[in-house]
């Protein structure tokens, strides 16, 4: 009796439950689809670290900043970026071309910027985006590998999102060598290879929606298919004496003079010949990068703020410079030790016992103590490979170039010819047997 009286409402209950489940399921699906749509248009993909693009969250959090940004006018692409004149001319051309491309809705050109750390690659990429009126998004190569299997989906999300940009998006891949390395090497995991393939798939055609800007300290590690996608190569070298002087002046102005003359600040500056001091510091800052010099500026400011009377004296400036020079030497020593260890383990001793010099890791020219002057602009992208195969070495080239310009030209010609030859060979090889998976 008990069971019968209880069982009567069961069918209604079950039907109700089923309807509820269907309702919940379809509602979840519908919100999922809507969510994905909104995410593709507005949400920042997880691989993108920083973006100038308008996001809903950002607009709610910082409404004034957002309005200001929307109203802002395009700036000079090279404002506050100190480069040697040849490089400056070249990057200015890049900036003008990019801006015109945007205005004419043309196809963007992909750029590779390479050079030692702290030479202004990221700084310029951001300025370039602002100058051209595009949005920028920064992703870093190191974030890709830890994503494992999710890397492919995340990569597609980045490009889905990039394609919805109305202003055009400058997609800046910092530390690009971390994930764009050769697929044929065993070191690269299956997941990373799949992610790289997704990246290659999405960048196969030139786009009028996004422009790729890759920055790397070691571009010789790139997969060949990446090199093939690059239209312009720019080498950011360490600053030469003149550039160092401009940098010292720039950061002295920014971190010392402006706060000292600004009024409300606590900082005061002792009387001495600032111009002469800056020239002197530039000479001592041999081999330092733009970043190291900017840090020197911050160090002067900190010194003033930490002093009792808030006065920055010449002696205090000198002490910070001494520290910075010492620290720079120490860093270079570490780099040299590491390089020597690597050379010992990787390469057999050179025949005839001749000491072979290297265009070291991170683009530094060792041995130490020698000035790393601003070099030429165009990149010998495969320098590393050529070196192994006995072509003209950059070091030899530098030495020769100083003594005879014609010898240098010959050498560059030879390098270019050999590079082209090798590229052709590579294409032939890939046509017949694409062993490393390079798309044809
Ligand atoms: N050419 C330069 N002109 C002016 N400032 C510079 C220059 N290079 C570096 N700096 C200063 O150093 C900081 C770091 O530079 P940036 O991030 O552009 O270096 P990077 O070349 O991207 O280095 P990394 O290879 O380590 O990423 C800049 O914010 C700027 O203050
Ligand atoms: Mg950078």
UniProtKB/TrEMBL annotation:
Q: Which residue numbers delimit the AAA+ ATPase domain?
A: 107-240
Localized where? Mitochondrion inner membrane; Mitochondrion matrix, Mitochondrion nucleoid
Instruction: Name the chain's protein.
Output: ATPase family AAA domain containing 3A
* Top-rank lineage group of the source organism: Eukaryota
Location of the region described as Disordered in the Swiss-Prot/TrEMBL record: 340-367, 389-440
The primary location reported for this protein is mitochondrion
- Gene Ontology terms: cellular component: mitochondrial inner membrane; mitochondrial nucleoid
Keyword Nucleotide-binding present in the record's keywords: the answer is yes
State the signal peptide span: 1-26
Give the family per the record. Belongs to the AAA ATPase family.
Organism, scientific name:
Hippocampus comes
Upper classification of the source organism reads: Eukaryota, Metazoa, Chordata, Craniata, Vertebrata
- Where along the chain is composition biased (Basic and acidic residues)? 409-434
Q: Which UniProt keywords apply?
A: ATP-binding, Coiled coil, Membrane, Mitochondrion, Mitochondrion inner membrane, Mitochondrion nucleoid, Nucleotide-binding, Signal
Record-linked InterPro entries? AAA+_ATPase, ATAD3_N, ATPase_AAA_core, P-loop_NTPase
Q: Which Gene3D superfamilies match?
A: P-loop containing nucleotide triphosphate hydrolases
**Does Mitochondrion count among this protein's keywords?**
yes
Q: Which GO terms describe its biological process?
A: mitochondrion organization
Its Gene Ontology molecular function terms? Answer: ATP binding; ATP hydrolysis activity; zinc ion binding
């Amino acid at each position: 009796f008990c069971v019968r009286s209880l069982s009567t409402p069961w069918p209604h209950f079950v039907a109700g439950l089923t309807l509820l489940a269907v309702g919940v399921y379809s509602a979840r699906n519908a919100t999922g689809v809507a969510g994905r749509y909104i995410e593709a248009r507005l949400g920042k993909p997880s691989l993108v670290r920083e973006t100038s693009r308008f996001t809903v969250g950002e607009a709610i959090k910082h409404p004034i900043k957002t309005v200001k940004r929307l109203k802002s006018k395009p700036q000079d692409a090279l404002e506050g970026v100190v480069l040697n004149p040849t490089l400056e001319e070249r990057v200015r051309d890049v900036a003008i071309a990019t801006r015109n491309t945007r205005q004419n809705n043309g196809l963007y050109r992909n750029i590779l910027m390479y050079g030692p750390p702290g030479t202004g690659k990221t700084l310029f990429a951001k300025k370039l985006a602002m100058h051209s009126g595009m949005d920028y998004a920064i992703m870093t190569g190191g974030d890709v590998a830890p994503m494992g299997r999710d890397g492919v989906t995340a990569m597609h999300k980045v490009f889905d999102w990039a394609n919805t940009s109305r202003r055009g998006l400058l997609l800046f891949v910092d530390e690009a060598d971390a994930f764009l390395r050769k697929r044929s090497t065993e070191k690269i995991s299956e997941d990373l290879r799949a992610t790289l393939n997704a990246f290659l798939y999405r960048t196969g055609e030139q786009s009028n929606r996004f422009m790729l800007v890759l920055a790397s300290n070691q571009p010789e590690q790139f997969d060949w298919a990446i090199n093939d996608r690059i239209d312009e190569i720019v080498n950011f070298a360490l600053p030469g004496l003149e550039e160092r002087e401009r940098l010292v002046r720039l950061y002295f102005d920014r971190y010392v003079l402006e706060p000292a003359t600004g009024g409300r600040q606590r900082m005061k500056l002792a009387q001495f010949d600032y111009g002469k001091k800056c020239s002197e510091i530039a000479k001592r800052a041999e081999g330092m990068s733009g970043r190291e010099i900017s840090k020197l500026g911050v160090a002067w400011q900190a010194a003033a703020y930490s002093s009792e009377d808030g006065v920055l004296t010449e002696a205090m400036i000198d002490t910070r410079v001494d520290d910075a020079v010492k620290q720079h030497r120490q860093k270079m020593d570490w780099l040299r030790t590491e390089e020597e260890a690597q050379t010992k383990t990787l390469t057999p001793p050179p025949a005839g016992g001749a000491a072979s010099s290297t265009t070291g890791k991170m683009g530094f020219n060792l041995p130490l103590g020698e000035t790393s002057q601003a070099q030429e602009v165009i990149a010998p992208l495969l320098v590393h490979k050529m070196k192994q195969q006995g072509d003209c070495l950059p070091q030899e080239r530098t030495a020769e170039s100083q003594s005879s310009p014609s010898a240098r030209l010959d050498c560059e010609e030879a390098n270019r010819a050999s590079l082209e030859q090798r590229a052709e060979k590579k294409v032939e090889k890939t046509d017949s047997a694409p062993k490393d998976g390079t798309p044809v």
